[in-house]
Amino acid sequence: PERGIFARPCINKELLKQYSEGLIVTSACLGGEVPQMILQNKLDTARQVATWYKEVFGEDYYIEIQDHGSQEDRIVNVEIVKIARELKIKIIATNDSHYISCNDVEAHDALLCINTNKLIEEDKRMRYSGTEYLKSAVEMAQLFRDHLDDETIKEAIDTTLEVANKVSRYELTGEARIPTIPIPPEHTADTYVEEISWLGLLERLKARTRNEIPPVYKQRLEYELKMLQQMGFSEYFLVVWDYIKYARDNNIPVGPGRGSAAGSLVAYVLKITNIDPVHHGLLFERFLNPERKSMPDIDSDFCIERRDDMIKYVTDKYGTDRVAQIITFNRMTSKAVLKDVARVLGIPYKKADEMAKLIPVSRGKPEKLKVMISRETPAQEFKDNYENTICINEETGTEVPVRQWIDMAIRIEGTNKTYGVHAAGVVISSEPLDELVPLQKNNEGAVITQYFMEDLEFLGLLKMDFLGLKNLTTLQKTVEYVKQTQDITIDAEALPSDMERKAQETFTRIKKLPIDVAKTYKLLEKGDLEGIFQLESSGMLDVVKKIKPSCLDDISSILALYRPGPLDAGLIPQFIDCKHGKAVEYDHPLLEP
Questions:
Q1: Quick one: 114 exposed, middle or buried, by C-beta within 10 A (0-12, 13-18, 19+)?
Q2: For the segment 162-193, what is each residue's pLDDT rounded down to a tens digit?
Q3: Is 99 left (phi over 0), alpha (psi -120 to 50) or beta?
Q4: 23, 270, 572, 579: most buried, per Cβ within 10 A?
Q5: Using a CB cutoff of 8 Å and minimum separation of 24, what contacts does 370-377 make?
Q6: Containing H/E element for 268?
Q7: Are the CB atoms for 108 and 128 separated by under 8 Å?
Q8: Cβ–Cβ < 8 Å for 541, 527
Q9: SS3 annotation, 438-451
Q10: Which residues, including other chains, have CB under 8 Å from residue 478's CB and lie 6 or more apart?
């Protein structure tokens, strides 16, 4: 197998011995080597195995006692304590913890049935004893009293604290692990970003010297560069600049930029974005400011057919061991978990479907079950069922109160059901990733992290968004077809501040795309939004038709308003009224512009 990639997590003894320094090892549950030898009545072999671990790990090897209610536990505990006394190995009391509270026993059993496609009522199925939760010291002390002496039990519980105290203090948050990018030998990351930024600004403004640059641009760039250097993000910008440059140099369509990064003049002059933040009045501070402790976030859109080329480029540049895609977890929503728990309880599908249909869906997400049974429930019928109704198990004919069914579903709601690969996220590390995070392969064989996006950022790893957009692919093909059929080169990226930048090409008519064509806005007003980025959802369709956008600013406003906060506050109807002539009330004259 490849290094670190196994069907099951495992390690051989040679490797374990090689990396023994700093490890604390215990003899494990009934599946461990020593307990298995005891159960097979190979007591001499059990002593030999324990001796090997004692020699390799010394005072950091512990003999484990457990009691989950099985006869095997008692057999192993009695013999393993004898071995521990004979070899002078400390004893530690442990317990399997598949869930935290004893109140989760039934919910965990239901989840097990969901995953194994069994009914709770079935006898022949995988099940746990119901003791595999996080126990208190008092509960642990009571476990072993029928077969071990009090002194041994006390020692085993005290040793738990000894192991905890051995673990050195450590910080989970990591320093930013930005990969190193090759730069000219006479430069640092700071000076190199500065140089290419000023050159980029001269090109963007068609100026020959810095003296020709308007003061507003000069001051903005100086401020942004100072902030980048102060926060240590120059190298980050070089990494993004490098792969965006690769895309543009290799005819891979790149989006003009969106999100807070569009407020950065440095991003604009480095051609990371194609939006002039000074011209459009966009704020750099929304993207980066001294109060922000996390990494900046630049979302990059690429043609969906060439996204894999971009991932290959950064993988080749920084190393296969330092680049991976990011896992996502599909969580059990209220509707899904309600039906799943109903199935394992033997509740008729018709009843489950009926209850699930009572749960309203808001912006693509069903309401949570706790809300459905609260005083503010959006469906009283659901709550009435919860409080008063009893279902009949189809298999056994036994009664199942709806309250029991939903309470069980509430405990499971939100747990991970399946995993996938993040649509955009790619992590690029300065160190081999298998030294920092657990990795796995997905069904297509791509290496992905086992930590999801927020955890990777928490560790200081650099997360880049490489989003594949079919809209960019469509635009690129449209430009190519117009060139083939009309011999017109469309400059699809031309924006107001650089409309006249590109020189006339020989034998070719160049058509710049204006942003103020009335016909375009008439299409939007009619609701012809199919294929238009971020405007084509059903919810957006209604808003666009009501607002009747007549300029680019209107589209910007729609995108800004169609978010949870403004939607919940009912701001869109207010905006529509103001747009169509209703008197606008200003809280202060300063707000009028």
A1: buried
A2: 999 999 887 777 777 888 899 999 999 999 99
A3: beta
A4: 270
A5: 370/410, 372/334, 372/406, 373/406
A6: helix 265-269
A7: yes
A8: yes
A9: CEEECCCCCEEECC
A10: 490
pLDDT of residue 4: 53
φ/ψ (deg, to 5) at 61: -110, 130
Q: What is the torsional sign of CA 135, 136, 139, 142? A: positive
**What tokens were used for 189?**
């990351």
CB of 359 closer than 8 Å to CB of 334: yes
pTM exceeds 0.85 for this model: no
Beta strands in 208-362 (DSSP E): 299-303, 323-331, 361-362
Q: What are phi and psi of 265, to 5 degrees?
A: -70, -35
| CA neighbor of 60 nearest in space, from 143, 167, 153 | 167
Token pair, residue 120, equals: 């709770």
Cβ count within 10 A of residue 299 = 16
Choose among 85, 16, 11: nearest CA to 56. Answer: 16
Query: For the chain, how many residues are written?
Result: 593
Contacts of 459 by beta carbon, 8 Å cutoff, 6+ apart: 172, 173, 174, 177, 436, 437, 451
DSSP 8-state class, residue 589: G
- List, in sequence order, the alpha helices (H) in 19-125: 33-39, 43-57, 71-87, 105-116
pLDDT, tens digit (0-9, with 9 covering 90-100), for 229-280: 998 889 999 999 999 999 999 989 999 888 889 999 999 999 999 989 999 8
* Max Cα distance, the chain (Å): 97
- Give the 3-state secondary structure of 501-549: CCCCCCCCEEEECCCCCHHHHHHHHHCCCCCCCCCCCHHHHHHHHHHCC
Identify the H or E element spanning 181.
Answer: none
Low-confidence ranges of the chain (pLDDT < 50): 1, 494-508
